[in-house]
Amino acid sequence: MNFKEEIKRRRTFGIISHPDAGKTTLTEKLLLFGGAIQVAGAVKSNKIKRTATSDFMEIEKQRGISVATSVMGFEYRDLKINILDTPGHQDFAEDTYRTLTAVDSVIVVIDVAKGVEPQTEKLVEVCRMRQTPIIVFINKLDREGRDGFDLLDEIEEKLSLTVRPLSWPIGMGQRFKGVYNLYEQKLILFRPHGKQAEEDVIEITDLSSAELDKQVGEAAANELRDEVKIIREVYPAFDRQAYLQGHLSPVFFGSAINNFGVKELLDCFVEIAPHPLPRFTEERQVDPAEDQFAGFVFKIHANMDPKHRDRIAFLRICSGKFARNTNYLHVRQNRKMKFSNPTSFMAARKEVIEEAFPGDVVGLYDSGNFKIGDTLTEGEVLHFKGIPSFSPEQFRYVNNADPLKQKQLAKGLEQLMDEGVAQLFTREVNGRKIIGTVGALQFDVIQYRLEHEYGASVQYEPVNLYKACWVQCKNEAALKEFLKRRNRDMAKDIDGHWVFLAESAWALKMAQENHPEVEFHFTSEF
Ligand code: G4P
Q1: Exposure string (b/e) for 50-66, b if CB count within 10 Å is 16 or more?
Q2: Residue 21 Cα: closest atom of ligand 1
Q3: What is the pTM of this model?
Q4: Within a domain: residue 207?
């Protein structure tokens, strides 16, 4: 197979949902179709959501498990599919945001009874920002849930997506009879526990056919006819181009646990989902089919074993062919590096690979050289865009609790920040360090890891802050004036960029009003 064909056959995507909607179950069923796993229950994934927020030891354990499921590759219908796992726990939302920079499309799972939940809203917003193509899977139709049209309205309203159902449920819960696949014009009868047989898939191109009544009963058949009529009148026809541009989201219904509607979803996904797309760098657009290799690190995973402080950096290949034992330029450090054990992930199996193609993710063993967002190339200086840090929402002063371990603390903090666990700000007035995170859980994780991996100990102290935002100003004099006036509220991030620490929403609003020339940014990339 030539290089271009290798690119064309790749589909790299993420599954996102609010915890408990069925992401893990769906992932597992997809892997079963791909033959990547043989039995259900093989994917433990990042299932840390049911633990109490204080139980971070459990989370640490799960973190170990989740390395194996960070990337799950499998072959299906001659295609190479890469599923990138996203943590379900909201305190790790930033990990998920970053993983979304490495996918070409996403599937959003929604619980039919719960509808659009907060975590889904946040994650879809990140996808929309990047115009990532989105397919929606409404799950748990074997249970009673909300009316299909109500759900579509809610998705359009809360997620700002234009939707087009490609399958439609016939009843739900006890009355669930199956779905009508509008894409392939087939009726698929529901059998619990994945006991689907070939004869349960019936081609019905004309819904007025008496076959429909025979299969699902007259009342359900008429209901389906009415509903499909509404769908055809109200929703735009499916247009692949609109989907690829992130303007139209097809919707499927099913029940992941019963393996129902999953194959239809996968079959449609492989037909319509994009192959690896061009990516943007500060310098230029990078096309996957370029000869020269380029890729970026979107996730760093620390080793759980304190005796081995190595980490795995996950690299998304954006162009060219990546090869083992070849010298590449680490752009930020301006030095050559080669990798003797690049790892690929096929579900729970890990193996050393010789080469990888655009769309693939390889794991690189790292002893502390990488930081999230780092670029590797064959020599060109490129900086991939779209891997921002987000404004943290929880803050604490961090104090050294053991003066003899100052060095260890500095090193530990630096490495944890490189991994993207949290963000570190240094106050301009007094040099005090503040850790900012998206979720409260990270404070425990940081304290624990500093102690166990670096032998350093810290104490936290509350600090009353509402938000940290990056500031920028084209007018030198105005910036100087702002920095002077707000000196008390200024800090620098780890890269030396100015950050405004707002004590309240009101303080932020006042600063924005009083300094109209200063731009306040809520992500580190602007
Ligand atoms: P998540 O990764 O999005 O957090 O969700 P996960 O797949 O773990 O699913 C959450 C719960 O919903 C699980 O039940 C799972 O079995 C159930 N579930 C998933 N798909 C369906 C479905 O189609 N129908 C029904 N009725 N349930 C579904 P649990 O009891 O919380 O966990 P477990 O003991 O089954 O693992």
Answers
A1: ebeeeebeebbebbebb
A2: 3
A3: 0.86
A4: no
